[in-house]
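To: structure subgroup
Subject: Chain for Friday's discussion

All,

I'm putting the inputs and outputs inline so they're searchable in the archive.
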Amino acid sequence: MPSNSTITHVRTLDGLYLAATLVTPDQPTNRAVVLVHGGGVTREEGGFFTRLAAGLADAGIASLRFDLRGHGDSEGRQEELTMAATLNDIRVSITHLREATGASEIGLCGASFAGGICAYYAAKRPDDLSRLVLLNPQVDYKQRTIDSRDYWSNDVISDERARELNDTGALQFKADLKHGRPFLNEVFWFRPMDVLSEIKAPTLIIHGNADTLVPIDGSREAATKFTAPVEFVEIEGSQHGFAVHDDPQYLNPKSQEYQAEVIETVARWLNA
């Protein structure tokens, strides 16, 4: 099905403009989904969200994907990014998508860093969405941000990294991602796993079983916590991002095969 792609923006509650792309099928649709990317990348997710949006449009589903604040072409500073801010940004993105398409069935899809945040949103604002999709979701933010780092010990940061935080206002978590002090404190208390039973929307979880960045065990545990209908799909042999190891541009044919499988699965499930 032919589709239309429009560059737009979403205004946040606190006045930032987030770069976004709206993709709609040529024919009117009652189904649409907000796509929320992982940390340190952009709304294209290395091209995966670009292809996902096209595949959804082919299936008659509209989508809106936006750059997180401090990412890509969006306003804001990365070190100011918090889970609370992202929840509010999801809220305005859902409103934007609903108004732009007239769709009454709105889904929410979060990848990696955004996965647990989208799950939390679904738990706390159940009337806003009809479906939830989690792609290799991060559901334990403290474990990844604090517990797995050798510069934190017994929940206390080392003197060296504390100086970095004091001097620059952020920690360089990885090459393309900085965490500010608000986020670093937030992860101690923000626990999506604790609210999964509150989610009312049918949920699809897809995770590669060779994922070393966000191990699949978190999704396996999460799938047992839902009271709403949940479908859990493991992609055999897939690393994080539905790819083979060390293929950030997704050029390997096997990576493209993994992603095509995920896109087909998501589109079919949203239309079921």
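Points worth raising on Friday:
The longest helix spans residues 83-101.
The chain has eight helices and twelve strands.

D.
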